[in-house]
Amino acid sequence: MTESNASADPNTASLPLTSPTTSQIPTSQNFPTRTETDSIGSLEIPDTAYWGVHTARANENFPIARRPISVYPDFVRAFACVKQAAARANAEIGALDDQRANLIDAACEEIKAGKLHDQFAVGVVQGGAGTSTNMNANEVITNRALEIAGRSKGDYAFIHPNDHTNHSQSTNDTYRPRSRSRWRSHCRTSSANSRSSPMPSPRRAASSPISSRSGAPSCRMRCR
User: Fold this and answer.
1) Along the 224 residues of the chain, how does pLDDT read in single tens digits?
2) Spatial contact of 75 and 182, defined as CB atoms under 8 Å apart
3) Which of 40, 76, 89, 172 has the largest count of CB atoms under 10 Å?
4) Angstrom distance (rounded) from CA 139 to CA 49
5) What's the start-to-end Cα distance of the chain, in Å?
């Protein structure tokens, strides 16, 4: 595994919204890579990437939508909230040491603030019921946590995407709470907008496809 030459500032990463397939990753000295390994084998991952081997596999296996999850920022923030809560809970019960938990927590806080969203590169349509999305989040959070610790991306012996960032979790544990968190965030925004905008007339509301389909009244009730 090569040492990363990337800056510790996540805003310096300049990658496309979708990760390249293996055949598209250049290996010349002008484009440094790191080697990551899973149960299938090894792949060369761009050193500037915060995603890793599982995300690269997903983009090879599911080139369906060609629309990355990063286009939904509330979705990404909600996932960071779930991962942050899991790290804190694991630290509280002694399942994760404080050092790793704090690093994961800090990385999640940055993602909640809007950083590294372009690194959430798996497509919105995929097989595996969201496992690829979960692992994409684990890899991005882990590699940023490693940088905060002064280590190279891919140094998974110190913080591992599955063993530490995903500790005591499955995709079902993270995906459904993430969906509820995103829904509550959307509801709060919808409620704020509805309070600041004049209510449409009953006739207009009944005939408007946006009003009739958005479910704004029930949204406000759920978030009350």
Assistant:
1) 443 333 344 444 444 444 444 444 444 456 899 999 999 999 999 999 999 999 999 999 888 877 899 999 999 999 999 999 999 999 999 999 999 999 999 999 999 999 999 999 999 888 777 899 999 999 999 999 999 999 999 999 999 999 999 999 988 777 666 555 444 544 444 344 444 444 444 343 333 333 233 333 333 323 23
2) yes
3) 76
4) 10
5) 51
- Identify the DSSP state of 123: B
DSSP class of 224: -
> Residue 22: helix, strand or coil by DSSP?
helix
Provide the residue count of the chain: 224
CB atoms under 10 Å from CB of 24, counted, come to 9
pLDDT at 215: 32
Rounded Cα distance between 3 and 205, Å, is 59
Integer Cα distance of 107 and 146 in angstroms:
9
Q: In angstroms, rounded to a whole number, what is the distance separating the alpha carbons of residues 143 and 64?
A: 26
pTM for the whole thing?
0.70
Decide the pairing of beta strands 42-46 and 33-37: antiparallel
> Which one, of 152, 121, 125, lies nearest residue 56 by Cα?
121
Residue 219, amino acid: C
Residues 164, 142: Cα–Cα separation, whole Å: 8
Query: Quick one: which of 48, 52, 61, 54 has its CA closest to 10?
Result: 48
> Is residue 159 exposed (0-12), middle (13-18) or buried (19+ Cβ within 10 Å)?
buried
Q: Side chain identity at 20, as an amino acid letter?
A: P
